[in-house]
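Data availability (excerpt). All sequences and predicted token strings are deposited with the supplementary files. A representative entry, TRIP4/RQT4 C2HC5-type zinc finger domain-containing protein, is shown inline so that the format can be inspected without opening the archive.
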Amino acid sequence: MSIKNTAVKDLRDLLPIDDDSLGQMVDNALALPSQSAITEYWLGLLGEAPDALTFIENFTTKLTAPVEPKPSPKPSKPQFKPVANTPSRPPSGRNDKNPWNQPVAEKNKLNNKPRLSKNVSSTTSQLLDKPQEKPSKQSAKREKQRKVDNLNDLDEILKQLEVEDSNNIDPSAKVVCNCMATRHPLFEAAPNCLNCGKIICVKEGYRPCSFCGHEIISLEEKLQIIQVLRGEKLQLESPSRTPEPQSSNEKQKKKKITLSSGAGVNLWNQQDALFKKLEAEDLKKAALAKKQAEESKKLKEQDEELSYYSNQKGIDPDLLKAQKNLENLLNFQANSAERTKIIDQASDFEIPTGSNLNIWSSSVEKALQLKKQQKQMRKMEKKQKELDGRGKKVMEMVIGKDGKVIMKERKIDHEPEDSEDELDNEEIAKLEKDIQSKKNQSSEEASKNIYDYEKEIAKWEKPKYQGTESSNETVETKATESLEKAKWDRIQLGGDSKNIEDMLVVI
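Structure token line:
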């Protein structure tokens, strides 16, 4: 039975899941690289129960068990059956496969071939590859000329890309060619115009399209091409900075530093001089690396500045100012301490130890919570020790009549509380009593506070409005005038007596 099937069978008793899910869990465990990772995986899923630990131990032992190699079948010797009534070949004086019977020319060929027998040993110098032939002066001169031509081509292309622009090109200097890459080779950097689709040849090149006037190469692509060409130019100008990768056969000479020692020579001074040399070389290498990093950083800043100013060309300055202000506000919002401050109050709701800790409680309540937490942690440690087999055990010694002593180990199911637990219980009870007394006192003080209407009214004074005599007279005259002007509204009724009677009934 395979490891997967046995593991799934054992997992049925531990996890109430279907067999497909259990098989997937076993496949995930088998895909892990190390035994420790597998153990952590199963512990995270099953926990530290005794059944789970036994399952993990069995699973890991099955994985690490050596696989017995299958006996390889021995090659059977070919059995030659004697053929009856077949005339044997007469022995000829010449054997085609025997080198002694071959012609002299073939003998010389065989003798000239190198033979390496198992008993013959070879030296290190024989095993080393032969040194490569040095390039001749003519090839070196040709290589140098090719390098100069490449540099000139790069300079010309860079000059044209950096100086020329679609706005400052003279219309009379524009090159128009309608060969569609049939007469001249295709311009591979931009084979056709993305606006009208015209095929571009090498003669027209990177200039704007002669048909629609659209740019063949955008500004961003030009900047990228300039950056790549500058890198190639730097590589050609300074080959020592970026040396070509040497072939595997070529020997790499290591730099050696000699240390002279002999009669009358102080070895300590020689060692000091050697260490100073090494430090100077390290400083030199660090300075060179720093210089190269600064140069690359400077080039990058120049490219960024060039792209920035090219993008800002023809944009309203007020819009740029508004964008800059927006960036400052967004930066302030992202980096402000007030905006990014997080108050985590998860401890009010989730407690890992189950001791109901609360950061907003008083000092006495915090002390009580800490005591309970310590007691809980001590209990957990005792349980862990019992699971590991390091808990307290009792040895029972029985002496028989014949003087034979029998020692028995007995496990304690209900262990009596330690002195530390008793002290903790006393302190916890005392703290709980203090907290309860304070709560009772505060509740009594709160119950004495009864709302009294008269006391509440006595706190406030009745408002008094004081005015001048003239203002009082004007108020009285206005009141009398309003009463005089007030009249009863008149209602006009029709002359019909029936209508009058109806109105009186309604009233």
